[in-house]
Design goal:
Layout lengths: L2 H14 L2 H8 L3 H15 L4 E3 L4 E3 L1 H28 L4 E7 L1 H8 L3 H7 L3 E7 L13 E5 L8 E14 L1 H7 L13 E4 L7 E5 L5 E5 L4 E3 L2 H9 L4 E5 H9 L4 E2 L7 E9 L7 H14 L8
Parallel strand pairs: 3-4, 3-5, 7-10, 7-11
Antiparallel strand pairs: 1-2, 5-13, 6-11, 6-12, 6-13, 8-9
Length: 301
């Protein structure tokens, strides 16, 4: 006989307190339930139930077996539910935390395509410039830019962006143009206060040497677009990702400060809670983002 069916029959008898109610619960005959339990006891070589004319109760061994059997049956039921859910159409509210600059610049403009493709999903997008605790704060997923911190979360790369030093032509007219990393300490720097590195810029020299630039920002802001606006106004040098500066650079509003320096490549990731099962709505959105951005080079937006 099927082991799982025997196990289910035994556990149901314990749950229901007798063979008659167990048979009703399982939708089979009382004799069939009795046959499954007897077969289980014979296979295990142990009596699992105390049977009297008035009641049925588990033996000491039966109680131990019941506890493990119930776990197995619950896992089996969950496995069936997962398969069903994975084959169902994505639906429900997708609550996600998104880095503000990326959300405003790149994500908002394509959300209509996603919502039209998946009309049963509604999106609650929260723009934040800090790392949220997904589970405790009730988020299904998050979009993060840069190095991933050590975490138990699962992550999938969506695409890359580049980061470089930019400033307006008017800034160079008034303050000159730095030609090497060491020159930056003599210039007006615009810092992004929400970055973990704060007022420290990690740059790569033309030789490939990793360098750090430390300095008090002439202006410090917790918003990338505000930093770009300040750079365009000629207030100083900003270190920004390409999805913020590329349009301004194409229009000649800002320029590459030291063109010889290699550009820093940053990964853009979708992160979501751990586990073997990914919610269909989360999987659908991540697949959508990968399709939208993976074919684009980091300098094309």
């Amino acid at each position: 006989m099927d082991r799982l069916t025997e196990m289910e029959a035994f556990a149901t008898v314990v749950d229901q307190g007798g063979f008659t109610d167990a048979a009703r619960k399982m939708g089979i005959s009382k004799s069939a339930v009795s046959k499954h339990v007897s077969s289980l006891e014979a296979r295990l070589g142990a009596r699992l139930l105390n049977r009297t004319t008035r009641r049925v109760s588990p033996t000491e061994i039966g109680l131990v077996y019941y506890d493990r059997a119930r776990r197995v049956l619950n896992d089996a039921g969950e496995a069936d539910s997962i398969v069903t859910a994975m084959q169902s159409a994505p639906s429900g509210v997708l609550r996600m935390s998104v880095v503000t600059d990326f959300g405003v610049s790149l994500l908002s403009p394509v959300l209509d395509e996603f919502l039209n493709e998946f009309p049963d999903i509604s999106v609650n997008m929260v723009l934040k410039n800090r790392y949220v605790e997904l589970i405790s704060e009730g988020f299904d997923m998050a979009i993060r830019v840069g190095e991933m911190e050590d975490s138990s979360l699962r992550a999938r790369k969506i695409t890359d962006t580049t980061q470089r030093l930019v400033a307006a032509p008017s800034y160079f007219e008034h303050h000159g143009r730095p030609t090497r990393i060491d020159d930056l300490t003599e210039h007006r720097l615009l810092h992004y206060s929400n970055q973990a590195s704060a007022n420290v810029w990690k740059l790569t020299a033309a030789s490939g040497e990793e360098r750090q630039v430390r300095g008090t920002g002439w202006l410090t802001v917790n918003d990338g677009q505000s930093l770009l606006n300040a750079a365009i106004k000629g207030l100083g040098i900003a270190y920004l990702p390409s999805f913020l500066y590329h349009k301004a650079m194409a229009q000649g509003l800002v320029e590459d400060v030291i063109p010889e320096l290699p550009r820093t490549v940053l990964g853009i990731y979708a992160v979501y809670p751990p586990g073997r099962f990914t919610q269909p709505k989360v999987r659908a959105f991540i697949d959508f983002l990968v399709e939208q951005f993976s074919a684009k080079g980091p300098e094309t937006w």
